Amino acid sequence: MRVIYSEDHKLRDARTELYAGQLVTPFEAPFRAEWILAAVKEAGFADVAAPDAHGLDTARKVHDPAYLDFLATVWDRWVAAGFEGEAIANSFPVRRTSQRVPDNIVGAIGHYANAADTSITKGSYEAAIASMRCAITGADWLNAGNRFAFALCRPPGHHAGIDLFGGYCFINNAGVAAQRLIDHGAKKVAVLDVDFHHGNGTQDLFYHRGDVFTASLHGDPLFAFPYFLGHADEEGEGQGTGTNRNYPMPPHTPWQVWSSALADALARIKAFGAEAIVVALGVDTFERDPISFFQLKSEDFIRMGEMISAAGLPVVTCMEGGYGVPEIGLNVANVLKGLEA
Ligand code: SP5
Ligand code: ZN
């Protein structure tokens, strides 16, 4: 298992998250990656490498280039407008509105946001690029003929859509990794999203494509973020018809139920003919995660890795969510252990 990690994740260190009507210290903070790195090293995963210095070529195949330009410039535009707080969207194009991109930065940030939980700060873009580079480098480890890589991505990516940021995500790392595998010659790949939250961004990237199967196991959007996508009847469209699968599950879902959804997703990934799996790994399914409502225990994450490994495919794992508690490191290390068992 090669681990890919960049110190540049620390450039993403927001002071504010709009939560419960207050600006709180963000759940998605630098300590997460530090704790996870320490725990995977402690568990014996000592092959840690820095990412290669990739540009945006792969990202431009899954994201709108104008959106990537927005990400690159939003902080400077926000500062130039004279604003003193972090950049937070507060006005959105919703039902019955134009989808033209406003020139005004407050309008532009609302246009490109799918949630107001994510403040943009100086350094957020640079950290997102470093995170994306970890994912690409992980995909390339598979392209070189290896079976397992762990891209310790931070910030996470699975809520980032074609032209949308939010849910602590800016560039869809797992989606970029999938594209990288395709560009290297894979005919079909799968993104398996086991984060507590629906992978709305990843679903958006590949909804009309037949070469990438997307599966997401998550808290039912009727009760959980991202609220507006992730229902079981979203199955893909056009060329992508039948290539998206959602497993929404209710509050207090335990491993026994969750794991039967995982078994179904893996069977569909095999039937689809995927040549590799990109795992979007959130450990916010843990029973003591501060913002989620599943009941997985630390030992369940070993079984999770074992089940995914039993599909017999190369696996690049990209870090997504998992918050607050010290066990996030152990839980990630347990998935990696299960994969290599
Ligand atoms: C990558 C990832 O896991 N992103 C999640 C973003 C969630 N942001 C909104 C959080 C709202 C949580 N509300 C939960 C109430 C718990 N009492
Ligand atoms: Zn999550």
Describe this entry's structure for a reader:
- With 341 residues, the chain is α/β, with parallel strands linked by helices.
- Helices cover 34% and strands 13% of the residues.
- It is built from 9 helices and 10 strands.
- The strands form 2 sheets. Strands 4-1-5-10-9-6-7-8 form an 8-stranded parallel beta sheet, with helices on both faces.
- Helix 6 links the parallel strand 6 and strand 7.
- It is globular.
- 53% of the residues are buried.
- The mean pLDDT is 98.
- The structure holds N-[3-({4-[(3-aminopropyl)amino]butyl}amino)propyl]acetamide and zinc ion.
- N-[3-({4-[(3-aminopropyl)amino]butyl}amino)propyl]acetamide (SP5) binds next to loops.
- GO terms for molecular function: histone deacetylase activity; hydrolase activity; metal ion binding.
- This is Acetoin utilization deacetylase AcuC-like enzyme.
- InterPro entries: HDACs (IPR000286), His_deacetylse_dom (IPR023801), His_deacetylse_dom_sf (IPR037138), Ureohydrolase_dom_sf (IPR023696).
The end-to-end span amounts to: 11 Å
- Could you say which small molecules are bound to this protein? N-[3-({4-[(3-aminopropyl)amino]butyl}amino)propyl]acetamide, zinc ion
Q: Would you identify the CATH architecture? A: 3-Layer(aba) Sandwich
Biggest β-sheet strands, sense, barrel: 8 strands, parallel
If you consult CATH, what is the topology? Arginase, Chain A
Number of domains: 1
Strand order, biggest sheet? 4-1-5-10-9-6-7-8
**Tally of alpha and pi helices:** 9
User: Which structural category do the helix and sheet elements fall into?
Assistant: alpha/beta
Helix content: 25-40%
Mean pLDDT: 98
Radius of gyration, in angstroms, nearest whole number: 18 Å
Basic shape: globular
Low-confidence segments, given as residue ranges, are none
Could you name the CATH class?
Alpha Beta
Number of strands: 10
Please provide the ordered H/E string of secondary-structure elements. EEEHEHHHEHEHEEHEHEH
Keywords: Hydrolase, Metal-binding, Zinc
Pfam family, one: Hist_deacetyl
Family: Belongs to the histone deacetylase family.
Domain Histone deacetylase: 28-338
